[in-house]
Amino acid sequence: MNINFEDKIALVTGAGKGIGRCIALRLSKLGAKVYAVNIGNWNNTRKVIEDVGKVDLLVNNAAIIRYKSVLETTEELIDEHFEVNVKAALNISQIVAKGIISRKGSGAIVNISSICGILTMPGCPVYGSSKAAIDMLTKSMALEFGPFKIRVNSCNPGAVLTPMNEKVFSTQDLKDSVTGRIPMGRFIEQEEVANTVAFLLSDYASMINGALVPVDGGNVIHISPNPVQ
To answer: Catalytic positions, please?
Structure first.
């Protein structure tokens, strides 16, 4: 499979580190001109995106996660998660889609979600809710944008061993408790997420629209609390 994004303009949010940076580098290597964008408030973000001009490919990657139980959750925590994880993605997607439609072009959008939008885990109810929301937003955008030749899909990574997660899974016992529930028996590499995103943005995925694509080694198919092996 030879993916070629030459002459394509790609925009990636949250590309300063981790998965976002890996995605941006991958798209650049495949020939795209990549803009890494930090999201701000609604109007400032719109101005930045409009200044970029033509965008063919969009990856909504920017997100936050704060670990609080349902009983500890505050209004501020909810607002913070939905502002970054959902509202910003809708805002940017709206601008990019309008641009593609106005020039009668075509394009693709990938929203970086999480298996936490499909499965729940203790300690992050608001994060999980925001990712479930982004998955529904993906389906809504796919339905509305499809007639305009814009595909929209979610990429739902499982346990990716980013520098942030290295701190979360700080002991071998914690790491084993996670990988034990993954049929493939290991963490996901950032490059595996980036490769999936590149595929979903490419013409090889020309009839994949409105899909939620887990990159999780089979984590979502294992509902037992016990390890696979």
So the answer is: 127, 131
CB 50 within 8 A of CB 4: no
* The pair of three-digit structure tokens given for residue 20, joined into one six-digit string: 């976002």
Pairing of the two strands 9-13 and 33-37? parallel
Number of domains in the chain: 1
Examine residue 226 and state whether it is found in any structural domain, yes or no: no
HEC-encoded secondary structure of 77-123: HHHHHHHHHHHHHHHHHHHHHHHHHHCCCCEEEEEECCHHHCCCCCC
pTM for this model (two decimals): 0.93
Q: What is the tens place of the pLDDT at every residue in 84-95?
A: 999 999 999 999
Amino acid at the residue 185: G
Report the sign of the C-alpha dihedral through residues 129, 138, 23, 10, in that order.
Answer: negative
In a domain, 222, yes or no: no
